[in-house]
Each structure stands twice: as C-alpha cells, then as structure tokens.
Design a protein that fits this description.
heterodimer; A: 111 residues; alpha+beta; Alpha-Beta Plaits; three-stranded antiparallel β-sheet; elongated; B: alpha/beta; Rossmann fold; six-stranded mixed β-sheet
C-alpha cells in the first residue's frame, strides 16, 4: 500500500471553536456545499455603553456529495477554522450520509 | 426524460467486466466494471496502476460492482441504465466522485443528471473531486465487509 502524502486534500476539517459564523466560506464556495446556522447573543459588560452582539455557531455542514475540494473555504477563512486533512475513508451508504456536521467535521482532527 | 443514447456502448462496456482483488484485503474479490464518464475514471485506473487492485481469477460467487465514475449527463443516462441492467445479479453500484454523487459542480446545470442515484440504485457513495484511488478501495471493502 502506498503512503498518502500528509498534505493530501482528503477532507476539510473544522475547528468549531475558531469559527465566528462570518459566512465567508459559505459565500465563497463555488458549489454552495457549506451550510451554517447561527444566532446572535448579547453580551453585557460592566461599564459598556451597550451590550455587544456575538454570533454563536449552531450548525456547520459540509455536503461532500457536492464539494469539489477546491479549498477556497480554507483559503478564505480569516480564523483558520478550516484545514485540510489527508483522511479519505468516509464513503456513505446513502447521499444524506455525505453531509457532515460539526461533530463529524471535528473528528477529522487537527492538521 | 432523456431522449438520446441507445445503450449499446455502455452495455458493451458492462459486458467487459473484470475481476480484481483488493491487495490490502485479499478476501475481497470483486467483479468490477468501471463506467468511466469523466476525470474520476483516471483515479480508477490509478488504483490499478498503483497496485491497489490486482487482476484476479473469475469466480462463480461474488457480486458484480458497477463503478460509475464521472459526470452523468441526461443524454448519457440511458447508457448508464443499460450498463446497470446488463450486469448479472447479485450486483451493486458504487457512485465514485462528486459528479455521480450529486452532479457535483454541475448541480445546477441543465444537462447534468443530479446524481446517478436518480437512474440506478446506488449502494455506496464515494466523496471526492476526484476521490483518491485509496477511496475506491475503501468503498469496495465497505461494500463487501460491512463495518
């Protein structure tokens, strides 16, 4: 069995803690294969004029059935929340199984 | 519904099915017919060229696997159906790559079938654009040896 290069573009992993739900990846994806849902929470700080509004990530889904592995989302993310991993073994028995949410995308692990 | 495509070409291809053994899992022996329609077919060839799959002796048992690799267009869909119907039972279809999974980059094109599962039943979907040759082996093993 041949070695897989460590920089192989097998899958795109998510670091959900780094994601700010800015939607840049969603907008730049040529395939529209990324779906993000988030909501805003107000954070009050003592002495502040008004509460700050913070986006909280609810769901982050990549549809591997559509993804063409161009990596524009990885390039465009200002917070390095997306990165390539060489993982290639994730076939699915149905098309729905190719949609990976936060938990599965984080399972791909660090770069 | 598609109006073109006689089915002769793909049915002929499907009759030429070959038997391969998976090198990393010698117990997995599959009668594979590669229906290469676009660039993903190069990765199928690469799996053979790099020795991940090796030609094996045909056996009477074992399922036939149709690997649809590449963009299925509405014009070519009848060929795909003919190739599927030409395969003997028991059989399974593997969708290899984004185009045959869902239409891929062409998901909004007027002429591309939005996933080969619209015309034939698919057992395993392999993600990738294109998938690595190793991903083909992963899918064939997952098909024969359920996790």
């Amino acid at each position: 069995m041949s070695e897989i290069p460590h920089q192989a573009r097998g899958a795109i992993a998510l670091d959900a803690a780094a994601c700010t739900s800015c939607m840049l990846c969603v907008k730049e994806c040529p395939d529209w294969c990324i779906h993000i849902e988030s909501h805003n929470e107000e954070v009050s700080e003592p002495g502040a004029r008004r509460p700050r509004s913070v986006a909280v990530l609810d769901s982050f889904t990549i549809d591997w059935g559509l993804c063409m592995y161009c990596g524009i989302c990885v390039e465009v993310c200002p917070f390095d929340a997306l990165h390539w991993v060489p993982e290639h073994d994730y076939p699915a028995p149905d098309a729905q199984g190719l949609r990976h949410g936060i938990a599965r995308l984080e399972e791909f692990g660090p770069s | 519904m598609p109006t073109r495509g006689t089915g002769d070409y793909a049915a002929g291809m499907a009759r030429e099915q070959r038997v391969y053994a998976v090198v990393s899992h010698p117990e997995v022996r599959v009668h594979v017919r590669d229906l290469g329609l676009a660039c993903c077919a190069v990765e199928f060839a690469s799996a053979i060229g790099r020795g991940l799959l090796v030609p094996a002796e045909p056996s009477t048992s074992g399922a036939a696997v149709l690997v649809v690799s590449g963009t299925v267009t509405d014009a070519l869909a009848p060929e795909v159906i003919a190739a599927w119907e030409a395969l003997p039972e028991p059989k399974a279809a593997v969708s290899f790559g984004a185009c045959s999974n869902s239409g891929g980059p062409y998901w909004d094109s007027y002429s591309v079938t939005k996933g080969v599962d619209r015309v034939i039943p698919v057992s395993t979907y392999v993600p990738g654009c294109p998938p690595r040759p190793e991903a083909l082996v992963d899918a064939l093993v997952a098909l024969v040896v359920p996790a």
